[in-house]
Records
---
Amino acid sequence: MAQIYNFSAGPAVLPVSVVHQVQSELVSYKNSGMSIMEISHRSSLYTDMEAEAEENLRKLMRIPAEYDVLFLQGGGTLQFAMVPLNLAKGNNQVGYIDSGHWAQRAIEEAQLVPKIKTDVVASAASTNYTTLPEVPKLKKQYDYIHLTLNNTIEGTMYRKLPENLKHQLLVGDMSSNIMAQRYNVEDFGLIYAGAQKNIGPAGMTVVIVKHELLDDKLELPAMLSYVKQAAKHSALNTPPVFAIYVAGLVFKWLLEQGGVEEMQKRNEKKAELLYNYLDSSSLFNAPVTKDARSLTNIPFVTGNAELDQRFIADAQESGLVNLKGHRSVGGMRASLYNAFPFEGVQKLIEFMERFEQSVGGNR
Amino acid sequence: MAQIYNFSAGPAVLPVSVVHQVQSELVSYKNSGMSIMEISHRSSLYTDMEAEAEENLRKLMRIPAEYDVLFLQGGGTLQFAMVPLNLAKGNNQVGYIDSGHWAQRAIEEAQLVPKIKTDVVASAASTNYTTLPEVPKLKKQYDYIHLTLNNTIEGTMYRKLPENLKHQLLVGDMSSNIMAQRYNVEDFGLIYAGAQKNIGPAGMTVVIVKHELLDDKLELPAMLSYVKQAAKHSALNTPPVFAIYVAGLVFKWLLEQGGVEEMQKRNEKKAELLYNYLDSSSLFNAPVTKDARSLTNIPFVTGNAELDQRFIADAQESGLVNLKGHRSVGGMRASLYNAFPFEGVQKLIEFMERFEQSVGGNR
């Protein structure tokens, strides 16, 4: 079949060479006669693989030794509950930045955790989330402030952290832009990211947490406790072996490609190409303000819902797949994660130009 | 490399044809140009696959329509907490049968859920778990009684449900013997099983729950709520696509082989062969009483820890791998799940006979 380009927001495109390696060694992992799906998580086959994955992730993100790296299950949504369960202490007063749909889901889930008091300290509701929220000077000290670094649906992203969040303990949801650009891990108390966007297959969540924040007197069910998971190196029970394995291959691929700096360069180039086209097009339009634009998720519209639908269907037929925007906002979205190739963006723009011509350049 | 036989208790051996199918279609699932790891969980590629997996599981286990089937994350250990979080109502008094290590872990986790009162209504501690607990007539009505159908570490299994548990709402942990023999789903309010033993790769947990038990007014974080997961068909957030896909292939394979009855026949034949040998051996010994023996997990010892170690190492070298017993009990364990072939048991017995001769048949 013809080459396709997969713009899915997640699960998303993986590096071609990684998919081929998984295939080639699927039946016998490291010549063991067993598939990676069949190996015991108490064997050195597993523990060596897991240790290498963690080591490479530490290199890529420059994670200091005083941070634990956990490979958990349940996606970002379970983290929405685990963060307040584990990190709310003292007055249980926690602050959230409402930057879009997933930030709101994080707030809703925190509100379902007993005794937690959530303050929304900033919101971009007034611009319908086409900007990032203005974060004011905070008068209180919170147990933590939760920040969604990249808003997958709305297409906004913090290229830099808000000034007024300094001196607060930051929890960062990096699900859709982890390792898409350099962040300083030490600016955060905890970082989490579902793997299925910019890391690997669905079914694994990376949590990076400063060890001193973990309270070993906290009585939580084991699977909900960072300190218990950290004590068992994420193998408190059977870990999601296959997902960790593929993520490990992606980490190795990232290092071989030149690491996070190189990814950032490539992502900036890919995103710039598409934003420049969108800003010059008389048909397509990027709703997000220039200073808030995401590197990894780029929503765009024609302004005509029917035309949007036709575009999505025609693009799909031409091998440009999964360009439909999230159901909550409509329109189109191109997700340009680390593994998404530059030529895919070129093909998309060529297709958009032809489409624009075919409809006369007018909405 | 030479053929190996994988006796791992989990992650465990998968059907050879399933592993090969995963390999052959890994780069382009259903000719989509995308790997199964790259497809969106909102696409029909995913929803069709998930629906077929569920349908086949319903056929295999004869699951009535009034039960929800959920494909979750977090393994049995998260279920240890989710069961009391979701099913303890009214007096919050719940009963547990202490049949071994994993039953004890279920109790410990339930005790970490606020407001739950756990009663251990029966225990096999006095026989060091080489028997199943005698369940007395219960005087109280409990919100539920939790039963571990197969004790993976100790090698005991309920071939029939205890008489005195009738008229109680039963929660069954079938992690290591789901579909190894026929159980009647209607005898249970809820059944759960981590996939990585008798179903598929690690990272997916099957939950089968009677819909009327779910309370949609219960305010739990989404990932911990059966009713919220059921409302979204297990796709409340990104599900573990790859693990569900492989489990679905295993379900199809089970149907092709003749379903649960055929598996039970094969498992009985495999287990009988090994138990008969163990009972006749002058070196090896099966510690579990005959009426409590598991079909899927068969522990055995020589009575000499050093000799056990030598046996495990020699067997490993001969391609009989992962025979080491759980660290908490020592000795050996052969896990003979559905996908484990009859000839593997023959090879093991041949090897044990040779080993027995080589050490002179004496301990």
---
Amino acid sequence: MATILLTGATGYIASHTWLALQAAGFEVVGVDDFSNSSPVVLERLHELGGRPPVFERADVCDAAAMEGVFQRHRIDATVHFAAFKAVGESTAKPLEYYANNLGGLLNVCRTMRRHGCTRFVFSSSATVYGDPESLPIREDARLTATNPYGQTKLVGEQILRDLGAADPAWQTACLRYFNPVGAHESGRIGEDPRGTPNNLMPYVTQVAVGRREFLQVFGDDYPTPDGTGVRDYIHVCDLADGHVAALRRLLDAPGSFTVNLGTGRGHSVLEVVTAFARASGRPVPYRIVPRRPGDVAACWADPSQAQSLLGWQARHGLERMCTDSWRWQQNNPRGFEA
Amino acid sequence: MATILLTGATGYIASHTWLALQAAGFEVVGVDDFSNSSPVVLERLHELGGRPPVFERADVCDAAAMEGVFQRHRIDATVHFAAFKAVGESTAKPLEYYANNLGGLLNVCRTMRRHGCTRFVFSSSATVYGDPESLPIREDARLTATNPYGQTKLVGEQILRDLGAADPAWQTACLRYFNPVGAHESGRIGEDPRGTPNNLMPYVTQVAVGRREFLQVFGDDYPTPDGTGVRDYIHVCDLADGHVAALRRLLDAPGSFTVNLGTGRGHSVLEVVTAFARASGRPVPYRIVPRRPGDVAACWADPSQAQSLLGWQARHGLERMCTDSWRWQQNNPRGFEA
């Protein structure tokens, strides 16, 4: 069975993908530098996977370190999760975002090429659609970026297109994630943001578990049914399965592709709050505060291309997303901290 | 007087800018790795400048090397010329282009920041206008890239905009070069492309000097007066003066800016051939061959912004460009080769 390298392997989406790949019979080699994740994830993966994870601590921007990884392991394909991902931080630290996100991508690709490994899955994002012109969003929509984080995703995709045009041996998949939430049903791994969460669900769960007093809802005057922002939330385990499907396709059939990974359904902030309160039995006090600059009113995917190309579709609904997020947060009120 | 770091300092435009900066009273520190230039340039700069050039051999992507340069010299501003620049090659080697051009830019900026140096001139290109919607081209025209080289210029500009937005201490100038030709009037330095020239003028001069049998004219069915492509050729010494003007502005006044450096006049391939044959007294046999993919029909600058902002405008016309190109080629039939 094929061996898959996961970069940024102990992050939120990557750790769930690791389990999904193992369940599907793949061998996995994980790499992370723990710059934004915890080594405790490896213990949990051992526990859930039934065997010690194959892991190397390394920075994807470190050429010698990545060369070593490829010398020690025969890698068939890479899923490149490793990247900085906070929009606001990217505006404050653009050099760090460009250097880490593009430098890491380029270094991994160049190392792969030296080892004849040319199958690559890239963690892209719905952020490349900017403020969408129409909904649902198809993959051929206009692309734009409104901050350095988004630029690194946009340029990352472009690099992979240029790479495929230069050398058809490269088969690449750009997966445009919508809004991942939820957690593994075991409640042993999940999203564990450092500092103030940038995303809605971890904020909601931290309020419910008593770590924060109330939720800030950024704007209630958007042109949406209840005035709050609408997003396409997708269960992280569905997202993980999307990676398995993408890898199967890359390994079995020629060609590169770009697909949305979303459910095709939009939920407003207040819908999520209500669903979460119901699922957890806890109140989620919130306050309406001004809009955040750069936030769009509404965004949801047309996921039909992933369905037709990969035979993949999201299976879990909002209730399950909330139940699993809550189980993770309740069992790990301070995340992976001891 | 201020000390200016030139990266890619022994290249064509940089070497002419070096002399112009010295003539204007600046101290210059040059850095190059000779990956696409000759150390002989330094001897010529010594001869023309009347003193040994201050130079360090270093790769701009090498963090330790650039740190050393900034430790040994107190730099007030950087002109970042260092980059790969062949459009066709960029399509074949996208990873190398992104890694070198963006990695170099990011490494230089991060090194500068550590040393409190935040004035930066970036070698951009008219290539960021893609196929222009109207002529002459103003700086606020739509930007696009049609190849990895162009992408690195487009993204490089974006990185600098993001950097300025994140930290107003940064003052940056993006100089969008049109088509540099000509050479220093001494005939001692000039353009010396390796392999087959990608640009018109060195091809023409190599034909005239007998290194090549005939000129290939790529297409004579463009919607231009004589059917051949029209470009805004600018004398490299005018371009060098544009850098001096940009640096003066960055050092004297707050703010960042982006300006075209062109003459505002377009000349067709056949006009250049005719002018060159007249200036050199040599015939320039040519053959019409098919269009090159990606070439646009016509492109010339609106240079008024550089005039109003920097008080700069190009002084030399096509005849002088041809005379100086020819003097350089005739005196150095094999460029800087011994």
